[in-house]
Amino acid sequence: MHSLVRLPEDDVRQQTRYAVYDMLSRRDPRLSLEQPFYNDQRVFELEMETLFKSEWLFAAMGCEMPKKGNFVTLDIGDNPIVIVRGGDGTLHGFHNVCRHRGSRLCLHEKGKVAKLVCPYHQWTYELDGRLLFAGQDMGDDFDLSAYGLQPLHVREAGGFVFVCLAETPPPLDDFLTTLEHYMALYEMDNARVAVQSDIVEEANWKLVIENNRECYHCSGAHPELLASLQEFDDTDDPRASDAYRELVKRQQATWEACNIPWQLTRLDRRNRLTRTPLIDGIVSMTPDGKVGCQKLMGSLTTPDLGSLRILHLPNSWNHCLGDHLITFRVLPLGPQRTLVTTKWIVRGDAVEGTDYDPERLRAVWDATNDQDRRLAEENQRGINSMAYRPGPYSPTFEFGVIDFLQWYGERMLTHLTGEEANES
Ligand code: 3BY
Ligand code: FES
Ligand code: FE
């Protein structure tokens, strides 16, 4: 295969690397980032080139590709990718780029195909990426085997699908094993997406994640969400009340008796899993706190599971309830534009209209997402001002943000200096 020829690095690119390196290595971890991290095109391109091309990213749910030939597409920056279920049940990931003249191959976000056929001149690929057919006119010595789709790394565990564009991806096994363990009871082979929302926020992707990593803003912004969600998910949280600690103790004893995993597991700063109670007496994130889907996930007999929260930096957080799951995927579109995709997932055999009302299922997080979108967009507009200066995070309320930026800074510095990843 021919290697990609790159134009020489221009000065601006090199200087951006130096400037970002410099800003990150001398930054005060208690403060928000300097302005260019949130609004500069060059810094954004550098992040896409380093972080988003090197890290494992949450891409989709396996239940969106239940059968052979089911595929999902998404864009990681300028890179269109396609994930497809092969004949043996495993997922294959490819750059969604035809080897003829480079057209995008799969145009839809989801679907089912027998083969991958390019819409331009109908070059046809097997689900494992091999080129099968290239028209009649490529010449007698044309070697089909030299023009397979370019693969990328895909892993699936506990119903979640991750991709990585790096040649040598960072380690992921510990996280996947933990995820399998926590997700087993949801039986994700028997699940499907009931509702999906795609929101474009006019804000930098880090502002979207920062906003998610704290609940300092919750009491002022999220009346619907706070009817079910506890503002903290850890008894060590400085804000945790005695009543919360009592509730956690009671719920954990019940979960323990049923073999339901709940322990807080942190795998470096990037992956965090914990099961935490909802508000006492509330079983789901719906307007009235009752189940949003009558058929519970897996073989559960009670919906009272609290929320299994799963964080995967840089681009996902999730709530797994007894009756449905809500997954969140963040994909940067530009320095000040971010796609947030939310999926509400129910048991595979749940019937719309009978077991669940999609409007009721989505109501709480639709409201919450819209509130968060406004907050992130106003945050962005203020940061764009000449008056913006990095401001202090509350160590009590915003330690999650401090943690995220610590991870971000470390990973950026690692990629910028080309060092091997030394975390697991
Ligand atoms: O765009 C599509 O939906 C299909 C799927 C694979 C190839 N493509 C033309
Ligand atoms: Fe795909 Fe021509 S670009 S067949
Ligand atoms: Fe919020």
TrEMBL record:
Q: Which Pfam families match?
A: Rieske (PF00355), Ring_hydroxyl_A (PF00848)
The organism of origin for this protein: Kushneria phosphatilytica
Give the PANTHER family listed for this entry: CHOLINE MONOOXYGENASE, CHLOROPLASTIC (PTHR43756)
> Which Gene3D superfamilies does the annotation name?
Naphthalene 1,2-dioxygenase Alpha Subunit, Chain A, domain 1, Rieske [2Fe-2S] iron-sulphur domain
Source domain of life is Bacteria
SUPFAM superfamilies linked to this entry = Bet v1-like, ISP domain
> Is Ribonucleoprotein tagged as a keyword?
no
Q: Name one GO molecular function term.
A: iron ion binding
Iron-sulfur as UniProt keyword: yes
List the protein's name.
Aromatic ring-hydroxylating dioxygenase subunit alpha
Q: Read off the InterPro entries from this record.
A: Rieske_2Fe-2S, Rieske_2Fe-2S_sf, Ring_hydroxy_dOase_asu_C_dom, Rng_hydr_dOase-A
Q: Which UniProt keywords apply?
A: 2Fe-2S, Dioxygenase, Iron, Iron-sulfur, Metal-binding, Oxidoreductase
Cofactor(s) the protein needs = Fe cation
